Amino acid sequence: MKDAACAGRLPRGLLKIISIKVLKIVTRIAELRSLLDGERAAGRTVGFVPTMGALHEGHASLVRAARSENDVVACSIFVNPTQFNDKSDLEHYPRTPEADRVLVEEAGCDVLFLPSVDEMYPQGEEEIIPRISWGLLDKVMEGAQRLGHFAGVVQIVKKLFDAAGPCKAYFGEKDFQQLAVIRRMAQDLQLPVEIVPCPTLRESDGLAMSSRNTRLRPEERAVAPLLSKALFMARELWPSHDAETIKEKVKALIAAEPRFRLDYFEIADADTLGPLREGQKNKAVACIAAYLGLVRLIDNVRLT
Hints:
Blueprint: H1 3-6, H2 12-19, E1 24-26, H3 29-41, E2 46-51, H4 57-69, E3 72-77, H5 87-92, H6 97-107, E4 111-113, H7 117-120, H8 142-145, H9 149-164, E5 167-172, H10 176-188, E6 193-198, H11 218-223, H12 226-237, H13 243-255, E7 260-269, E8 284-292, E9 295-302
Parallel strand pairs: 1-4, 2-3, 2-5, 3-4, 5-6
Antiparallel strand pairs: 7-8, 8-9
Helix pairs in contact: 4-6, 9-10, 12-13
């Protein structure tokens, strides 16, 4: 993986040249596909960054990564209703359209795709969920806690990939399980899309950047870094402790803060998300999800 690119490290002069481009906004699938097909026909490569809006510096780093590796960068913003198993969560999902437009433009986006729900899910269209050999990828952790979530993710990402056409697509590792699911979908369906993972960006206190952080009350935001602290502790303990011991220590740490309610903490094989096999300790990933007040936060770290 190209860490420097994913971290968005571009020369200041180059970034200034990129940022003065005129951002083209499209709302129709056919218009996006026609525009990007034209770029590819002219021999230019396309980088694509799908998002749900409420963008932050983590998303900007994905755009900059795409900018550094491609001739043309397209971003999409679409709050996908089919991946929310909680209607209230969908209603309260933050929406900041003008700030989002400015952020992607300054990061180097050339084309911004802003479809409506009717555009992505036409009335009367038969919705087909791709049949994939998931193994445990969609059944554990988020799959177990949010029934139907990954079916909705796969549904919309496949639609977005079809709209964008052949490209490199950039995703943050903060949503580690989602990234694994999307990678498997692209492989199994043999899509003309290269999935490019990029490192999680964190606030100065360690909290993973997330659109949901804006919903935290000030007193909740103050204790939110406990989640990443638990993961960093697990990483420190990993060389000398077994998984079950680490799980108990993490659970105790989270339980000591009454404002947190732990959903799960798992140590799993980074490729399959299943239990670690003998001799596979170097492939471990620690994943955590917890409610802080009414806001559900997730995070992860590689343990090696």
